[in-house]
Every structure is written in C-alpha cells, then in structure tokens.
Design brief:
Elements: H1 2-29, H2 41-65, H3 67-74, H4 76-81, H5 83-111, H6 117-137
Length: 152
Amino acid sequence: MYPTVLTIHSWLRWAALLSGVGATFDAFRHRADTGSRARGQRWDWFFMLALDLQAVLGLLLYFGYSPFTREAIANVMMAVRDPGLRFWSITHVAMMVVALVAVRAGRVFAMSERRSPARKNARFICFAIAVLAMVAGVPWPGLSNGRPLFRF
C-alpha cells in the first residue's frame, strides 16, 4: 500500500502546484476588481481540493505507511539530529501546514461579503505564501532528500 499512496501523493503534487500557481495568478489579476461577486473561484476551489487531497494522503503516509516517519516518531531526538529524517518529520510537514493554512485564509478572503481591494490583495498574498511554502517543502531532485519528479 505504501508505494501506491506514495505514487498518488507524488503525482498529485503537480495538480496542487499547478492549481496553486493558477489561483495565485488569478488572484493577482482580479485583485483590483470591485465587483460584488468574487471572480476566479474555480481556481481557488481546485487549489483547495488538490491541497486537501494531498493532506489526506500525506497524513496516511505520515502516520501509517512511511518508514521514515515511523522511525522519526519512534526516536524523535534522532530525527532532529538526522537531516533526512528531520526533513520528512518536521520540515516537509511544517511547510505543507503553512500552505494549508494560507489557502484556507485566502479562501476566507475570497468568500467574504466585503469585496475591498485590501481583502483581494490579501487573497493574492495568501495564495502566494501557500505556493512558496509548497515549493520550499517539496523534495526536489538534487537536494539531499530529493525524490524523482515523476514516480512510476
């Protein structure tokens, strides 16, 4: 089950990143709109959905299937000292939690009744923070904890 969940999690990251970039650009484009109805909510919805699915799969990996996090949970002090375990048990999770919180905050700004330019700017900023946190938390190839871009 571990390889299947890991492969789906790996491929879904692209949907999350692409929808995040799309939602961020859309929020940037419409940040000065003064219309009563928020535009670009479809991008927001896809971004939030992809991130939520990633979180569910990530929690399955973190608390169930991943040998890295099982080892880290069993010995927290060793995990803090080992850069590889620290990345998976702390850094990756922290960056993705930041992304989740930022997307939720951005959606609150998008769905609020008051359509002020400041709220629309905040939506853009929240989505940009989420995408940056996701990029920082992904195990890119070439890094010490790097993983392949596409799993098969």
